[in-house]
Structure prediction request, 538 residues.
Amino acid sequence: MVAAIETTVLNCWFGSLQVLKDVDILVERNEIFGIIGPANSGKTTFLRAINRLNALVPSYRQTGLIQLAGRDIEEIEDTVLRRRVGIIFALPQVLPISIFDNVAYGPRMHGIANRSTLEQIVEQSLRRAHLWDEVKDRLHSPALRLSGGQQQRLCIARTLAVEPEVILYDEPCSGLDPISTAKVEETMQQLKERYTQVLVTNNTKQAARVCDRCAFFLMGQVIEVAQTSVLFTNPADQRTNDYITGRFG
Amino acid sequence: MRRAITERIIETCIRLSGLVVILFVVLVFLFLLKDAVLLFGHYPLGQFLLGTKWLPISEPPSFGIIPLLIGSLYVTAGAIVLCVPVGVISAMFIAEVAPGPLKGILKSLVEILASIPSVVLGFIGLVWLGPFLKDLLGLRTGQCGLTGSLLLAFMALPTIISISEDALASVPKAFKEAAYGLGATRWQTLWRICLPAASSGIIAAVMLGIGRVIGETMVVMMVTGNSPVIPRSITQALRTLTATIASEMGEAVSGSEHYYALFAVGLVLFISTFLINLVADAFLRRARQ
Prediction:
């Protein structure tokens, strides 16, 4: 089976600063792949390389190969790539419009105008993001009235609405309380059936709870990739051990 | 204790400054009203507002404000049609499209544009733009509403560009990234995210631009031909409310009907800008909700 994402000797720079060094990562289909590591270790840069959001920064340069389902992403147009690879940011990026319009935003942008099709997409996306029951009676009220956790799940629904293959999470729970965090994590587990997910998190406990496999990044390099249970109990590298036991980072 | 007194003094100063502004507006209004009302003792209000002839020194004089209102309307509408799209699109270009160094250069050029005195623009209109338009469009005279509109558009541009640009630049980066993340193109992001998010700022910019256009006197007096008759098109000579006051105040005898009529014109101008601001304010409040 072809890997969902595969990077080969990926190097990234912002200006003269090298942020990623020779990163080889392989993400299997339908797994939740965790990326942990201290600040400035290149986790977010790695994530944003996959859907080419880094390229919005003028000083960004990159070498190496990134493949999405076996195909070099350089051959894929920006807009298509970013539909196939959705991203959830640390702070919920809810647009100041209604709940319905937030979810329908992407499909509308890609040319779907039929009301009943949109309604169908919105319902299905909200159901998959585990938000439907909480908001079904107030789809047309402003999305900004939702709580932080609901907003984050709304963002997940919005991403699902454009039918991605891969969902990237950039510290999705860093601004959420424990209960909201649990709901987002539960949603991620449910989404495993259909989607490949990559989770960048500063919270090692969260990685241990949610991820199938994890990579430990340090100073732009991949130190270790292993099954989550192995990485957190019996890491091969001393530096990994130091990080997960809280000795630095 | 001393701190409390200092607090009190500062608070009073701030409150006074706020009150002074309100006081000025009210005083200007009362001042205009006081002299304008004296006209209507001699001359009926209906004839002033609906009269189609402005002949202040004929015998008997006629103070119909319609030609001036229509003159102002033509020039202002022409300027708005020209400057709003150009201004907003320029702002979009500077805020979102132009690469770094070009952005800096453009921003300072816009600021320089704002500092050109209006009399200089009027001069350019008189000796160059007017004759140019006359030849280009085959007009009878280059001193017409269109020349005024073009120059006024030029004057309003810096206001519209710099305020719209600020509004666009302050759209959170996260909104844009969210849109890009959903597969939006640059244009879709600009059009559907940045523009709506900045809309209240852009409307404010446009309204300030319009305010500048309506109140401008020097340029229109110099280039629009100064003829207080109802224009049939924007390419004819006309005269605005502002230019009428400026050009006739010197010759009107203090205390005469003519003198009071000019105050009444000023009052009309004051009320119309006030109404525009009110509408703008309503728009802004709605955009904020």
Q: What stands out?
A: The radius of gyration of chain A is 18 Å.
